[in-house]
Specification:
The chain has 93 residues and is mostly helical. The protein has one domain (1-84). It is 97% helix and 0% strand. The protein is built from 1 helix and no strands. It is rod-shaped.
């Protein structure tokens, strides 16, 4: 009888240990799932930010191209209109 009680005590201790281990494993699994969710959210935020950077870069390129065209027209106007005036003024005409 004492052997049965001893074996029963050992079995209960083993079951208790397994139960505690399962609880810890569940808590760890929940923590991993939470971290995976955070990583997924960060990936989505980074993708959105990258899309914004691409749009901003395209806008800057368009603005730069527009500024280049304005400068080109200004340069043509300057050479066509201002320089001949200076030459005429220097020549007294």
């Amino acid at each position: 009888m004492s052997r049965i009680n001893g074996a029963l005590g050992e079995s209960l201790a083993a079951v208790s240990f397994i139960s505690l281990s399962l609880q810890e494993q569940r808590a760890n699994s929940e923590q991993v799932a939470c971290n995976v969710e955070r990583v997924a959210q960060s990936v989505e935020e980074n993708a959105a930010a990258q899309g914004g950077i691409v749009r901003t870069t395209q806008e800057l390129k368009g603005m730069s191209d527009g500024l280049g065209a304005i400068l080109q027209r200004f340069s043509l106007y300057f050479h066509a209109n201002v320089q001949p005036l200076k030459s005429r003024q220097l020549l007294g005409g």
